[in-house]
Automatic annotation (TrEMBL):
Belongs to the pyrroline-5-carboxylate reductase family. Coiled coil: none annotated. Catalyzes the reduction of 1-pyrroline-5-carboxylate (PCA) to L-proline. It is an enzyme of class 1 (oxidoreductase). Keywords: Amino-acid biosynthesis, Cytoplasm, NADP, Oxidoreductase, Proline biosynthesis. This is Pyrroline-5-carboxylate reductase. Its EC number is 1.5.1.2. The keyword Transmembrane does not apply. It is found in: Cytoplasm.
Amino acid sequence: MTTVHVLFIGAGRMARAMIAGIRRRQGPIHWDISVANHQDSARLTELTTTFRVRAQTDWRTAAEQADIIILAMPPAAHQTVLETLSHHVLPHQLVASVAAGIGVSGLASKLPEGTQCAWLMPNIAAAVGESMTLCAFGDTVTADNREKLAEILRGLGQYHVCTETQVHHLTAITGSAPAFAFQFAEALEQAATALATDETTARLLVGQMLLGSAKLLLSGRPPEELTDEVATPGGATAAGLSVLTEAQFKTRVMDAIEATNQRARALAPET
């Protein structure tokens, strides 16, 4: 069995979700995981106890032993870390970031020429192994390192390899839109409790309805076909849909995506 050494710099929610995903998978790789985080010793202790990882107080030493280095800290912290990492990274290593706005080009511009770089954008569902993760690879990433990273991403859920530009545009769909879905779910829960049931039952009703609807979408059937199957012309569902149509529901959703992308561009760190 191949052993792959992974270093997480940062120990926040996404690092924890990724480590949990790695440990869930029973694949052909033995993962030797180290985590460095100088701000939260309690989190390091929890990760060490729960997931059998090594806690590192000085990531620079650990970096030299790693095969994959994952930057799991906020975008603002990348500048300083990358400046230091540039003196330690080795040609065979893969450096990946899970921070918004960084991009492959942002990593490559701060690291030695030819450094293997990747940009990952998981979403909140990584915590339960159901993420839709976007992934962009730099041109120098080897096939072997692509497969190693893909094995990590499989532990988070589904993943899609695309260009850096596509990650910038599509993160509003995969990363931000879960918040829109939760707002929709909240409205449905409120309607359920106002009409006939308690909060716990409302959560079950709405959650299972969304889960089942999502599975139908993933079966490959187009949403308009599924809508027509539920909504009989002149029926009760059609009456509800007409309210959403009058409120320009689809247009408002697309407006929300555009607003998300505009704000993401404004917040993106300079490379």
